[in-house]
Write a structure and sequence with these properties.
Length: 146
């Protein structure tokens, strides 16, 4: 009986280790996605700055703008939408931008402490790994007792 119980908890300990590995892999993948998105965000911000500087050279009265100048302003508005996203009147997101996606990926990895948005807090992958490592320690102590 003892042997069977000990084997069971040893298998459970192995399962916990595999869960940690899975979460570490997930962290790596989310970090790679976040880095790609951050590069796109930085590129969009640089392009927006360039367009804004170009628009400063246009005539002050928009009625005198050429079609090309109007197209540049439209391009600016699209970039702003891609960066900032689109909010409803109540502040909720109807279309997420780069900033929203980056924030979501950060929350997925690091979680959030208790705040207005997350009254209970939000556990990220890092907190899950910490919890599983604590469980590993508890299981190891219990296996020694058996």
């Amino acid at each position: 009986m003892f042997n069977q119980k000990k084997k069971y908890f040893i298998k459970k300990l192995e399962g916990v280790q595999k869960m940690i590995w899975d979460l570490e892999f997930k962290t790596e993948k989310v970090s790679v996605v976040r880095e790609g998105l951050r590069r796109e965000y930085d590129g969009a911000k640089a392009k927006l700055e360039s367009i804004e500087n170009r628009i400063k050279t246009f005539p002050i009265e928009k009625t005198k703008w050429t079609d090309e100048q109007k197209r540049v302003e439209d391009e600016k508005n699209v970039l702003i939408l891609n960066i900032e996203g689109l909010r409803n009147g109540d502040g909720s997101i109807s279309r997420a931008g780069y900033k929203d996606h980056l924030r979501d990926l950060d929350l997925e990895i690091n979680g959030s402490p208790k705040n207005k948005e997350f009254p209970e807090g939000l556990n990220g992958i890092v907190q899950q790994i910490v919890g599983l490592r604590e469980l590993q320690g508890i299981l190891k102590m219990y296996i020694k007792k058996i």
